[in-house]
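Request: Could I get any protein with tokenized structure?
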Amino acid sequence: MIKVNNLRIYQSMIEHELGVRETCVLSRVNHQTLKKMLTGLMVRIDAVRRLSQALEIPVHELLIVSRDDPPFDKLAGNKTVSHPVSF
């Protein structure tokens, strides 16, 4: 599962002295989308990219990849499925 690193977003907003409204305008991201990101939920990758550019954060610092949830092996029906992750 891919999640958004909300702590890194908060850190960058504080460094740039931006509030939620200013961050939305600067990154051209809807306030509801930003709210999802600030709670750690994954959103469309283009919104992550725009926020990354606006806050001057590399995309790889905004994304957290975990294999805990959902259980990929159970969904695939195969116990030997490998999931390569590359950026």
Observations:
- The chain has a mean pLDDT of 82.
- Residues 39 and 83 are 26 Å apart (CA to CA).
- The first helix runs from residue 6 to 15.
